[in-house]
């Protein structure tokens, strides 16, 4: 796991009659072990930045390096490989496969690489146990609560030992008690050295991070550490 470095990141969408500049020269670094909350008003470029970080789309200009790999120089196939092998995704809507069990869902990113053996199953069981689902291994998503489904998604995001876990409004569908439980898992992962990049519009969620990056009009507005005394526990 290596540092992520973003330099002058620019993304333009060309529509019929105009060019939309969604990101206009954003720069910041995410060192290994950091915990960053990305905030900003609607239309400020958060989704666009997330798509770049998630290797779903390439910048128009500037660079985004995951360790030594500059994604702006990659082919679409290389991007797909990085995406499935080196990035952990956690979504607001969990994105689990209903026909698969907890353990099988956690193994999904490994299927893409043709890794289906007992070693992989064992790793999935260990991750399920770590997120508190050791007694739910064979359950299907519809037999789980929202919080439990999000735990499955978090375990799945870790199965490839990713550069970072990219979480997009991960508690957006959860009540406040379940939100606390899920955020406690992120806290624990971060304490163990995992890098976490989380997009949220909720202040109390962002205050769990070590640092808040705010976008405005496609630019970096502020990039500030969260004071230890302000960090929500
Ligand atoms: P946020 O996630 O902060 O709401 P977005 O990244 O979705 O912001 O959008 C930033 C700007 O880019 C907005 O003006 C939006 O309309 C525009 N935009 C986003 N995606 C596209 C797209 N696929 N095509 C054209 N314009 C887009
Ligand atoms: P494609 O089939 O177009 O190459 P992917 O299969 O890589 O797309 O991704 C499909 C969806 O799954 C995307 O929304 C992507 O963000 C998500 N995704 C990709 N890789 C993973 C992963 N390792 N874990 C969870 N979700 C992923």
TrEMBL record:
A molecular-function term among this protein's GO annotations: ATP hydrolysis activity
Keyword Hydrolase on entry: yes
EC numbers: 3.6.3.-
One Pfam family linked to the record: ABC_tran
GO cellular component terms, semicolon-separated: membrane protein complex; plasma membrane
Annotated ranges, domain ABC transporter: 4-233
Keywords, sorted A to Z: ATP-binding, Hydrolase, Nucleotide-binding, Transport
Highest taxon listed in the record's lineage: Bacteria
Family annotation (InterPro entries): AAA+_ATPase, ABC_transporter-like_ATP-bd, ABC_transporter-like_CS, ABC_transpr_LolD-like, MacB-like_ATP-bd, P-loop_NTPase
Gene3D superfamilies per the UniProt record, alphabetical: P-loop containing nucleotide triphosphate hydrolases
UniProt key word Phosphoprotein: no
Listed PROSITE patterns: ABC_TRANSPORTER_1, ABC_TRANSPORTER_2
Entry similarity comment: Belongs to the ABC transporter superfamily. Macrolide exporter (TC 3.A.1.122) family.
UniProt xrefs under PANTHER family: ABC TRANSPORTER ABCH.1, IMPORT ATP-BINDING PROTEIN
Name the record gives this protein: ABC transporter ATP-binding protein
Species assigned in the record: Rubripirellula lacrimiformis
């Amino acid at each position: 796991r290596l540092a992520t470095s973003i330099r002058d990141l620019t993304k333009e969408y060309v529509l019929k009659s105009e060019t939309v500049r969604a990101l206009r020269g954003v720069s910041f670094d995410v060192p290994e072990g950091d915990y960053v909350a990305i905030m900003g008003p609607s239309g400020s470029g958060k989704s666009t930045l997330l798509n770049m970080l998630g290797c779903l789309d390439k910048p128009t200009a500037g660079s985004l390096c995951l360790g030594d790999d500059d994604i702006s120089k990659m082919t679409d196939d290389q991007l797909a490989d990085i995406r499935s092998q080196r990035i952990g995704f956690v979504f607001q809507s969990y994105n689990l496969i209903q026909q698969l069990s907890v353990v099988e869902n956690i193994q999904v990113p490994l299927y893409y690489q043709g890794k289906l053996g007992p070693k992989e199953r064992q790793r999935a069981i260990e991750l399920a146990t770590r997120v508190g689902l050791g007694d739910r291994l064979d359950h299907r998503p519809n037999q789980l609560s929202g919080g439990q489904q999000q735990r499955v998604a978090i375990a799945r995001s870790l199965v490839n030992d990713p550069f970072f876990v990219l979480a997009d409004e991960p508690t957006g569908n959860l009540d406040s008690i379940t939100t606390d439980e899920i955020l406690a898992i992120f806290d624990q992962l971060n304490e163990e050295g995992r890098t976490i990049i989380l997009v949220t519009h909720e202040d109390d969620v962002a205050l769990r991070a070590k640092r808040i990056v705010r976008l405005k009009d496609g630019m970096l507005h502020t990039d500030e550490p969260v004071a230890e005394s302000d960090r929500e526990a």
